[in-house]
Design brief:
about 190 residues, 4-stranded antiparallel sheet, 20 strands
Length: about 190
């Protein structure tokens, strides 16, 4: 494989033998995944191992590495979306989507929509469009959450959802921990 290496403030890619495969010329870069990497010089784009441009758009403002054929991408004035390896869209950018966070081990990502979060699966499906003030990481198919209540400052209580967004424990606890070994700790009314 090729490793990203910084030399004199610019990024390039070296082979395992220590030879420059792609000379340092980029201000920032990701890591090669699926034979493609995002780079930034004057603009963001994806290049292949030969250093040739594979995918580019003058409106890219944030790119991420491809994982299982999908990358989280943000475009100027268009928002965030999910791009397939061929440059087509699994989920077209949505202007309301400020940021798509990394997918967790369950293939679920949190999507920042204003001051709340929604869920998004790796296949592009939104299991629930409910707004959450907080969503923890999914463990064993469950995540703690705090519902988004417009006009309030995160004073709602915590509950538990599954990967479909179904509420399993209503938000009535001051705090809920992560599910671990089929156990869940909680704090209720100062106890």
């Amino acid at each position: 494989g090729l490793a990203a290496v910084q030399h004199k403030g610019r990024w390039g890619f070296m082979s395992k033998t220590g030879d420059w495969h792609i000379k340092p010329q980029y201000s920032s870069t990701g890591n090669f995944k699926e034979d493609i990497v995002w780079v930034r010089d004057r603009q963001f784009k994806y290049i292949n191992k030969a250093g040739q441009t594979e995918i580019e758009d003058n409106n890219f403002i944030a790119l991420n590495d491809f994982e299982d054929g999908v990358a989280r991408v943000k475009l100027r004035q268009k928002g965030s979306g999910l791009m397939l390896r061929d440059g087509s869209w699994l989920v077209k950018p949505k202007s309301a989507w400020y940021k798509i966070e990394p997918f967790d081990s369950m293939g679920i990502a949190r999507v920042r929509v204003g001051n709340r979060y929604e869920l998004l699966r790796h296949d592009g499906v939104q299991p629930s469009k409910k707004g959450y003030a907080f969503i923890g990481d999914f463990h064993h198919g469950y995540a703690t959450m705090r519902p988004y209540i417009p006009g309030t400052k995160s004073n709602s209580h915590f509950g538990l959802i599954d990967t479909s967004g179904k509420v399993l424990i209503a938000p009535k606890y001051i705090w809920l921990g992560d599910v671990h070994q089929n156990r869940l700790w909680y704090k209720d009314k100062g106890k």
